[in-house]
Amino acid sequence: MIVRRSMVILTSVMATGALTLTACGSRDDKGGNSDSGGGTTLTIGVDAPLSGENSTTGLGIQYGAQIAVDDANKNKLVPGVTFKLKAFDDKAQPATGQSNATAITGDKTAVGAVGPLNSGVAQSMQQVFASANMVEISPSNTNPALTQGKDWQTAKKRPYKTYFRTATTDELQGSFAADYAYNGLKKKKVFVVDDKQTYGAGLAKIFNEQFKKLGGTVVGTDHVNTGDKDFGSLVTKVKSSGADLLYYGGQYDESSLITKQLKDGGVKIPLFGGDGMFASTYIETAGAASEGDLATAVGVPADTLPAAKTFIETYKSKGYKGDYGAYGAYSYDATTAIIKAVKAAVDANDGKVPTDINALRSSVVDNVQKSDFEGISGKVSFDQYGDTTNKQLTVYQVTKGAWKAVKTGTAS
Amino acid sequence: MNTLPQQLANGLLLGSMYGLIAIGYTMVYGIVQLINFAHGEIFMTGAFGAFTVYFYILPDGVSMAVAVPLMLIGGGIVAVLIAVGAERFAYRPLRGAPRLAPLITAIGLSLALQEVVRNFYPGADRAIAFPGLDATHEIGSVTIKDADIFLIVAAIICMSSLAFFVRKSRTGRAMQATAQDPDTAQLMGIDTNRIIVIAFAIGGFFAAVAALAYGLKYGNIDYRMGFLMGLKAFTAAVLGGIGNIYGAMLGGLVLGVAETLASAYIDGIPGMDKLGGQSWANVWAFALLIIVLLVRPQGLLGERVADRA
User: CA torsion sign, A275 to A276 to A281 to A287?
Assistant: First the structure.
């Protein structure tokens, strides 16, 4: 009997360990390829979750970058240079993102990277790119600390000069949402939930503070784990709190389940979230329960931008998977910023591609900082922290089973 | 508003699901002393089997009253076939091998099943919307859905038929005998291979019932749903006393209720606000497991050697 009992304990410990480890395994990269047409081939890496959680938006980033690379090659944006996109799947795991970053910087033809989707993953990748002096532009990271340092509320200090983003920060997004909830929706009692990740917790905290500052009441807070499925206990708490709005900082994987269980539990209040849940998958998974829910997203709606029209047509005609709506246009612009910086580097070198990859990378970083062009999502330029100067935000609401823009504004 | 009745109902529902899955762990362990770590994935394939019946076989707009029994049959067939197939091709060749060999096989099988579903089932690389039974009922201050009623009724029927089967039927008694001493049971004319297959099949079917309830309740399924549910159900089986079928159900209920109550009330205790809420529910559930195992290493209902099937 003793043997059997210790066997149970041994096996449970071992199996738990083994099963946990498998979550970190890496998979072959499924790179997008384009034919090289003579001259030099330079690689741009793109890193995002391409499978599992968050992959709908992640694939939008991958193919947004792919279209930018194809356009640049077709239009011979940099004469004599063919760009190749190499895609890496980080599965929304910081450790996987870090090893992808190492793989990208180790590639002697790589000049820059686009991604990742998640702020928490970005934290583990920044240092790798900084050491290699390679530019990294995220189309979607919104955590303020990534560009303004961990003390961003009191003393802003840029931690890495190689990191840029075309998305605006949660400081603006959380405040914008709080303002819309209080003044636009006239909600006074809110229940705030987050998923404890860098992005979700940061966003929920800023929303919470701003909502109270405006005069609203936060009637309760809770935290969930990513991967949780049963929110029955949370729903009961929200119900008894008398909240008239649930604010969620996190991704659609959990928020779509929360809103469904909330409404099934008889709590008919809208769920409001950030750009992490602004995806068609949210509506597909939650179904009718998502009607009336809200999300803020960076920038203005892609389909209202005249410049993005061709992009959307290309995306659809190629039959790319994923959802371009959230970050596709930002990913396109981030990739274009790298390509334009390569062009500036080549121009500065008498029209020749610098043979020393390190010199090229360093020149690309400097030129991205100086970016100033009209992208498909608006003007692309960066401030002294590497943040975009385009600070537009939009509130979307689920109306008849689709995200519909209800308010666009510039965050102050 | 008094939330306790609702929170208890939430916990009992979650616990019934854990319990149904835990039966598979405990029966297999009781008979062959193998922790079948692929059982969570058998649960997952059961959900995909049920979804396949609904989405690809039944006509659009079919009433759920017709669909649910057919989905149960479909999910049951898939889960039972995979469970029995796993036994026949993965575990049986290793019978008599050191204990670690089948255990590692189980982990490998678990990963293989996940990846097969992820790669080959259309759209399974992300969550798939599952038809729900969402009509709600108010009973006093408790709100429950049709899916919850399905889960409770299914759990009660499954458990009582299993108890009846193990105690009264010839095969059930053969099972108890095999659990007590496989060699002697074989000498007495019991086909132990058949008994083992039956144990896997019952576990698989119960997992399919839980999987269907899961889909109907949460409205979506994905290829990784079996991992955490499997781990929790295994915990429930150990908590209740692994090898004991009543223990599995009791362990499931205790675990579900403990998790829910911890998530609901611990952050309301003064000074504990940082240690409560949904994100700490698992911590408290596992803390409970550790405490129970310290006091009663054999689990709540122990491993009654004479009646271990």
Answer: negative
User: Which chain B positions have a beta carbon within 8 Å of A196's beta carbon?
Assistant: 279
Asked if pLDDT for residue A9 goes beyond 70, the answer is no
Q: From the CB of residue A357, how many other CB atoms can be counted at a distance below 10 Å? A: 17
pLDDT band at A4 (very low <50, low <70, confident <90, very high): low
Residue A22's pLDDT band (boundaries 50, 70, 90)? very low
> What CATH number belongs to B4-307?
1.10.3470
d(CA B220, nearest CA chain A) in Å = 7
What is the four-CA torsion angle of B79, B82, B88, B92, rounded to 10 degrees? -80
**From the list A18, A55, A222, which residue is nearest B126 (CB)?**
A55
CB proximity under 8 Å: A 323-342 to B: none
Note whether B278 contacts A19, CB cutoff 8 Å.
no
Note the pLDDT tens digit of each residue in A330-376.
Answer: 999 999 999 999 999 999 988 888 889 999 999 999 999 999 999 99
Q: What number is the average pLDDT over the span A227-251?
A: 93
What pLDDT score does A29 carry? 41
Residues of A numbered 226-255 whose beta carbons fall under 8 angstroms of chain B's beta carbons: which are they?
A: 227-234, 236-237, 239-240, 253
Separation between Cα atoms, residue A327 and residue B43, nearest integer Å: 35
Whether the bond between A116 and the residue before it is cis, its omega within 30 degrees of 0, is: yes
pLDDT at B257: 95
Domain boundaries, chain B: 4-307
Measure the CA–CA gap between B71 and B58, rounded to whole angstroms: 9
Identify the CA nearest to B29 among candidates B208, B224, B236: B236
Rounded to two decimals, what is the model's pTM? 0.81
Residue of B nearest to A53 (CA): B126
The domains of chain A are located at 40-167+304-381, 171-298+394-410
pLDDT, position A88: 95
Domain A40-167+304-381, CATH:
3.40.50.2300
ipTM of predicted complex: 0.83
A40-167+304-381 and A171-298+394-410 agree in CATH topology: yes
Q: Is A171-298+394-410 a domain of CATH 3.40.50.880?
A: no
